[in-house]
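User: Teach me something about this protein's shape.
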Amino acid sequence: MADYSSPLVAGPGGVMTDEVGVVTGDLELRTSLVGGVLRAKVRYEGAEEWYAVTGAACRVADPRDHAAVHQVLHGVLHRPLG
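Assistant: First, the predicted structure itself:
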């Protein structure tokens, strides 16, 4: 399965992660689908370390839904000021 990746700017309050708490600023969202479970991670733009987005793992009924779920997550998390 393909991973999806999109740049984003975290909105006010940032993005909560399991490993380090809230991250803010210019980030990258990556979703992957393995065994029917979609997982979302973020990293600071250009960094190597990925962090699991808290509460963003879910089972999808159809692998074709991966792209749509990625777009929804991106829409929720991408909140640039202005």
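Now, about its shape. The two ends are 36 Å apart (CA to CA). DSSP finds one helix and seven strands in the chain. If you'd like, I can walk through any region in more detail.
User: That's plenty for now, thanks!
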